[in-house]
Amino acid sequence: MVISADIGLFDFSVENSIINAKKSIFKYIRSMLSKKTKYGIKALAFIAKKGDRKPVQTSEISKSENISQKFLESILLELRKSGFLGSKKGKGGGYYLIKEPEDIRMTSVIRVLEGPIAMVPCVSLNYYEKCDDCPSEEACSVHSLMIQVRDSTLKVLGDNTLADISAKK
Amino acid sequence: MVISADIGLFDFSVENSIINAKKSIFKYIRSMLSKKTKYGIKALAFIAKKGDRKPVQTSEISKSENISQKFLESILLELRKSGFLGSKKGKGGGYYLIKEPEDIRMTSVIRVLEGPIAMVPCVSLNYYEKCDDCPSEEACSVHSLMIQVRDSTLKVLGDNTLADISAKK
DNA sequence: TTTATAACCTACTAATCCGATAGGTTAATA
DNA sequence: TATTAACCTATCGGATTAGTAGGTTATAAA
C-alpha cells in the first residue's frame, strides 16, 4: 500500500508538471494585479518622471507605454476623481500630479484602482467582508496566514512612493 | 485654477468614497486567493489536525468546514495527484497525508492550487511570462515593486508549514 | 458473492469580471 | 470659429470561478 502510494505520487507528479507546463504555455496565467492597476501605476510614473507640472496628454502616455488609449482614458479619469491627478481640457491640456510624488504611496494607488490589498476579504483593512463558510475567524487556519501576507505586502507597498518607483530607470 | 482643482479633488474624493462604500456592500470583492485554494488549505489543515494517519472522508471535511462536497472532491483529487495526499477507496477510505505537516510549505500548496504567487507573471519564479507591453523589464516602474512584494510574500508563505497553520486553534 | 461505500472521472452551467471598443459630448485654447 | 483633449455612456467577447449532475471504479464489509 505504501509502495503503490509512492508510485502513484511519482506518476502523478510528472503528469502534473506536464499539465502545469502546458498551462503556462497555452493558458492564461491568473494575475493578481489587473492591467488597469498596472497601467495606472505606469501612467502615474510617466507623469512623475516629467518633473514639471505641465499637463501630459493621454495620447502621449498611451503611445509611450503601449496602452490602449481609450482604456487609459478611463483609468486616468478614475485617478483624477480619486484625487491623484488634476486635469485640463482643450489644446495643451492633459493630466498633472496634484501631490508630490513622495507623498503618493503605492498602497493608496492600488486600493483605488484594484481594491483590497489583502488576498482574502476577511483580512482586508479597507474592504473587510466576513466569509460565509467560516464560523470563527480565530479557528480558521487560513486567516492568520493571510494576515501575515497582508502585513508584509502592506509594508512593501506602504514604503514605496511614486517617487521611488519613478526614480528607477 | 488651483482652487477649482482643490474643489474638484474634494468633491470627487467624497463621491469616490461613496462609490467604494457601495462597492463593498453590493458588489463582489475581488479575491486574490480563490475558494479552491482556500478550501484546499483548510482541508489539509483538517486532515493534519487529526494527527493519526487514518483516512479522512471528503464528506466529513465537507460538513465540518462548510464546503460543497463535490467541489471539495475535485480539490482533494488534485492534491493527491500533486503528491500531498494519498487515498484509499471503498468503506473506511478517504484521504491521508503522505508527508509530515512540518515538511509541507504553504508556497508549494498555493503554487499547485492557485498557480503563481507573484502578483504579475513577469516576476513569477515558477510561472514566468513576459509582458506584451513592456519593452524592457528594467525600465518598468511596476517590475521592481512587484519583485519586492513577491519576495516578502514568498518569505511568509515559505516560513509557514502545514504544521504551523494547523496548530492554531 | 453481493452490497455498500467512497474515491474517481467527465461534462456542463450560471454568474461574473476583465480589457477593450465605439461613439458621442463638453470645455478650453488658438 | 475650429481644433483639441478630456469626459461620458453603452456595449461586448472571452475567460474564469465555483459549482452541479451523473456516472464509473475499486475496496471493505455483509
UniProtKB/TrEMBL annotation, chains A, B:
Q: Could you tell me the superkingdom of the organism this chain comes from?
A: Bacteria
GO MF terms on file?
DNA binding; DNA-binding transcription factor activity
Q: Which GO terms describe its cellular component?
A: cytosol
**Hey, what's the signal peptide range on this chain?**
none
Keyword DNA-binding (UniProt): yes
Q: Does the keyword Acyltransferase apply?
A: no
- A Pfam family assignment: Rrf2
Keywords tagged on the record:
DNA-binding
Protein name in UniProt: Transcriptional regulator, BadM/Rrf2 family
